[in-house]
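In this section we walk through a basic example: taking a raw amino acid sequence and producing a predicted 3D structure, encoded as discrete structure tokens. The instruction is simple. Fold the sequence below.
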Amino acid sequence: MEQYTGHYTPPERPAKKDRHNDEERRLWVVNDEGLYDMQRGSGKSVKAWIRENRALIDECIDGVVSGEHRAHYLKYGG
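The resulting token sequence is shown next.
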């Protein structure tokens, strides 16, 4: 634990990968054909696949939400 120095240091913002929770990621996986196909192709449960691919899923979510990519771009391009 760090020693108090008399100066307040605000907590760091969560990293980009931590902005979405696993329930939100699960909803994206089951509703996006590209993510769904990747998960199914892995042979792992949805929960296990999400645990191993949080950064990838978050990138996909952020890309669609920001307008950088169209919905379902992993499956249909765009």
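Looking at the output, two observations stand out. The chain has a mean pLDDT of 85. The longest helix spans residues 54-65. In the next section we compare this with other chains.
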